[in-house]
Amino acid sequence: MDLDLITNILYATIRTGTPLLLVALGEMVCEKSGVLNLGQEGMMLLGAVAGFIAMYHCDSLFIGFAVAALTGVLISLLFGFIALNLNASQVATGLALTIFGTGLSAFLGADYEGKTVEALPELALGALKDIPLIGKPLFAQDAIVYFSWVLVVVVYLFFKHHRGGLAIRAAGENPEVGSSLGLPVMRIRYLAVMFGGACAGLAGGYLSMAYTPLWTENMTAGRGWIALALVVFASWRIERVMLGAYLFGFASIMHLVAQGLGLSIDSNLLAMLPYVATLVVLVMLSKDKERLKLFEPMSLAKPWHRNN
């Protein structure tokens, strides 16, 4: 395996893992507040189609990504109202949101199927991109990749050093006690849900305007579900979320790696790898439920209302 091939594999791994990182990071914050949102796939698709349509008509990547993120926020508010205010099952609401988002995105994007837009350009950081092996993967990415890295650092520092991070954890561990201490639990949970929605919408926009700058129905291909498994795999730890996103990203490009190595393996089998990896991870985690409970927020997916 030559140096150029390894460099291209690392480069593609980061690009492929970026939407997973964004969705998983948003869902992790959401779950730390005690809310389980299974609607990530639907929010990604709606963010992808809304951002693409905005970019197609306005010819502005900034507007496209802003619309994608805003769409995710608006859909997350719908989830929040049903799951938090009406105390509906968070699992059922999230599943309904995915079904709704999948159908609505297909309807809205019907007239844009197969159309393309100008892809998000790379931001090559001068001579750094010419460093052997790591130059292209680290210093020749697009703005959303760099933004995802900044977001990881910000979220990490927020939970480690800011009172707001402690408030989110309190809302996720014991909302009743948090409320009795004066914490606005419902507001905290809403903000966490909105953050998760913005990240999901942005990830969808990344797929339709940067990764593959075109719109196709169901283009997320299960990435929202993989991100949900990734949060559990990472034990709700930010640094593990980032590592896991790139591991799953690498699994997603194995068919390209096989082609580069000249291996005669059916590409359809290799395309199954990220989903097989997801199942394997879930099976492995299910064998150690006690350890998993040490990291899982105690009130995750449990309805709560101040008047209860």
TrEMBL record:
<feature type="transmembrane region" description="Helical">
    <location>
        <begin position="221"/>
        <end position="238"/>
    </location>
</feature>
<protein>
    <submittedName>
        <fullName>ABC transporter permease</fullName>
    </submittedName>
</protein>
<feature type="transmembrane region" description="Helical">
    <location>
        <begin position="91"/>
        <end position="110"/>
    </location>
</feature>
<feature type="transmembrane region" description="Helical">
    <location>
        <begin position="245"/>
        <end position="263"/>
    </location>
</feature>
<dbReference type="Pfam" id="PF02653">
    <property type="entry name" value="BPD_transp_2"/>
</dbReference>
<feature type="transmembrane region" description="Helical">
    <location>
        <begin position="138"/>
        <end position="159"/>
    </location>
</feature>
<dbReference type="InterPro" id="IPR001851">
    <property type="entry name" value="ABC_transp_permease"/>
</dbReference>
<feature type="transmembrane region" description="Helical">
    <location>
        <begin position="269"/>
        <end position="285"/>
    </location>
</feature>
<keyword id="KW-0472">Membrane</keyword>
<feature type="transmembrane region" description="Helical">
    <location>
        <begin position="190"/>
        <end position="209"/>
    </location>
</feature>
<feature type="transmembrane region" description="Helical">
    <location>
        <begin position="62"/>
        <end position="84"/>
    </location>
</feature>
<keyword id="KW-0812">Transmembrane</keyword>
<feature type="transmembrane region" description="Helical">
    <location>
        <begin position="6"/>
        <end position="26"/>
    </location>
</feature>
<keyword id="KW-1133">Transmembrane helix</keyword>
<keyword id="KW-1003">Cell membrane</keyword>
<feature type="transmembrane region" description="Helical">
    <location>
        <begin position="38"/>
        <end position="56"/>
    </location>
</feature>
